[in-house]
Amino acid sequence: MRVSAVAILFLPALANAFAPTSPRIAQVARSPLALSTPKSQIAVSGNDFALMASSSAMQMSESSSESKESGFGKKVFDAYLKTANVATTLFPLWTVLFTALALKSPSSFAWFTTEYFTAALAALMLSMGITLSPADFVKVASRPNAVIMQFTLCYAMMPALALGLGKAFGLDNALTAGLVLVGCINGGQASNLCTYIAKGNVALSVLMTTATTIGAIFMTPFLCKAALGAVVPVDAAGIAISTLQVVLAPIAVGMTCKSLFPKTVDKVLPFAPVVGVVSTCLLVASAVAQVSDQILSAGIMLQLPIILLHLIGGLVGYGLPKISGFGEVACRTMAIETSMKSSAFGFLLAKLHFGEYAARVPAAVSVVWMALTGSILAVIWRYIPVKAPEKFDRSLKDKYPPFQPKKAFKKLLGKA
Predict the structure, then answer these.
(1) Residues in the chain where the model's pLDDT stays below 50
(2) What is the pLDDT of residue 15?
(3) How far apart are CA 175 and CA 168, in angstroms?
(4) Is residue 65 a part of any domain in this protein?
(5) Which residue in 42, 49, 13 sits closest to 25, CA to CA?
(6) Residue 346 CA to chain centroid, in angstroms?
(7) CA 299 → CA 76, 302, 390, distances in Å?
(8) Is 407 a member of any domain?
(9) How far apart are CA 301 and CA 310, in angstroms?
(10) Which of 282, 275, 258, 254 is nearest to 84 (CA)?
């Protein structure tokens, strides 16, 4: 964790090294879209022109020198933004390359120990946290319908789909058990990054990930027992502590930094997607490297049902909310969240609690296809703009009214 802390401390310095030094240009450069704004649209006040007209020759020379430096800084920063945009767009390619390297040479990622794994997850969550504010969570929490629907998709539809695919492809009992376990686990943290890339609702994604992660404490053992007749003990305290350390705490730190140091965060913000992509690729490669033998030994008859589990999960996760009246942004968020499971956690559970060695193979294979499915969906949606509704749909407000705890409690007691 010491490495990640030092990296976080140096991020503002790195941002300042590339950010334009001129206040006006810096203000325009805060948004990548604003960098394409024509110069004719950048207003300059009359007082500024008067000051320039009355300056001495030396001041004009210094101003010219500063302008050149500012122009150079802007060009470098502009070039970085374009490069970062391309790098983020190629997210699925980086996932494939890192996966291939991990399969061919697992020892290449032997240095990526548990400490670095945790630090990378924290960095991923921190990079998401600086894009959020408490108001985002308040807005989402006031209408928990999307969270409830996605929770149902995660712990009802996905386990049933996994069991059905296992039976349809004639997998033996051990492989079917492993596949069902993948369907019964919580959503993965990488879904938050993919939601950010897809221009979904990051605050909603974080709440969904947190809800399903906490839900795994009781839902995963219950579903495995119901579907497989197998008892899968889950470390409830460990999951709760990990959720606090790796998900909630870094996000809270990011939001706090955004609130207290908005100018610094504005300069760091363009680096967030790159940090997220690098962290995710390392996390996927590390998980794959640990189970490379199992992945390589898995045949096509196991690869196909796992691919379909994540693909169909994403399609249903998008289509069902869509026909239920949810907006495009929420539908994209739920699709990615449903499709991307915490496969590494599933592998750990299978390794610890399933007697058959083959039961851990589906989770190992799922690590690859989960990351690929989510990243491909994210990149596709990144370039499909969301159309703003022409008018407010009041029927949607009737379907999904704001959550009122007092009214719900009274209704539950029969006093409404």
Answers:
(1) 1-68, 392-398
(2) 41
(3) 13
(4) no
(5) 42
(6) 19
(7) 48, 6, 50
(8) no
(9) 15
(10) 275
Is residue 151 within 8 A of residue 211, CB to CB? The reply is yes
CA distances from 116 to 110, 119, 154 (A): 11, 5, 28
CA distance 185 to 342: 7
Nearest by Cα to 283 from 171, 214, 354, 374: 374
Q: What is the pLDDT of residues 304-346, one digit of tens each?
A: 999 999 999 999 999 999 998 898 999 999 999 999 998 877 8
Structural domain harbouring 124: 89-105+112-384
186 SS3 class: coil
Report the pLDDT value the prediction gives residue 411, as an integer from 0 to 100.
64
- Give the span between the Cα atoms of 231 and 221, in whole angstroms: 6
Amino acid at 336: I
Using alpha carbons only, what angle is made at residue 26 by residues 257 and 77, rounded to the nearest 5 degrees? 95
282-288-292-295 Cα dihedral, nearest 10 degrees:
-150
Q: Does a structural domain hold residue 393?
A: no
Q: Which two tokens stand for residue 54?
A: 């009355």
- With respect to residue 41, please indicate whether it lies within any of the assigned structural domains: no
CB half-sphere exposure, 373, CA atoms < 13 A:
27
- Residues 252-277: b if buried by 16+ CB within 10 A, e if exposed: bbbbebbeeeeebbbbbbbbbbbbbb
How far apart are alpha carbons 165 and 149 in whole angstroms? Answer: 22
Q: How many domains does the chain have?
A: 1
The CATH number of the domain holding residue 95 is 1.20.1530.20
Q: What is the C-alpha end-to-end distance of the chain, expressed in Å? A: 52
Percent helix, percent strand, percent coil in the chain, to nearest 5 = 80, 0, 20
